[in-house]
Amino acid sequence: MTDDRPAWERGTGFLLARLGSLTARSWTAFLGEHRLTQAQYAVLVALGRHGPVGQGRLAELVAVDARNLVSVLDGLTDRRLLERRPHDTDGRRRVVALTADGRALADGLAAAAAAEQDRFLAALPPADRTRLNRLLQRLYDAQLTGPDRGA
């Protein structure tokens, strides 16, 4: 199979950047369908996986500054997807937990995200998807731990 596209349009950097842009657009649309921001999605997934946690620990899990987490939690609380309650032994601390509606949404998001990923990667058979993910993970890990990253 010949490719008539110019060389710059076949380069790895271009393809990664362009696909990154397309997948970001797809992901943003997916989140919009659920009326969620990326940070809200991360909170729901983290709580779904870890169960009720303190606000400080939740901020660590979702990589959001604890001061910025409050507005994220407010939006989810307003939608009755989570609740904040006093810690059992330390009244100064707050524990964040999913409500029944929040649990249902978090569980549904996992399946919906997988379906969206399948739609985006539909041109690749399963074995190629697995290989692509493994290669991308290797590149990602190398960037995080490479010589310029202090590792």
Automatic annotation (TrEMBL):
One of its GO terms (biological process) is response to stress. Residues 12-141 form the HTH marR-type domain. Pfam families: MarR_2 (PF12802). One of its GO terms (molecular function) is DNA-binding transcription factor activity. SUPFAM superfamilies: Winged helix' DNA-binding domain. Gene3D superfamilies: Winged helix-like DNA-binding domain superfamily/Winged helix DNA-binding domain. It comes from the Bacteria. Coiled coil: none annotated. PANTHER family: HTH-TYPE TRANSCRIPTIONAL REPRESSOR YETL (PTHR33164:SF43), TRANSCRIPTIONAL REGULATOR, MARR FAMILY (PTHR33164). This is HTH marR-type domain-containing protein. It comes from Kitasatospora cheerisanensis KCTC 2395.
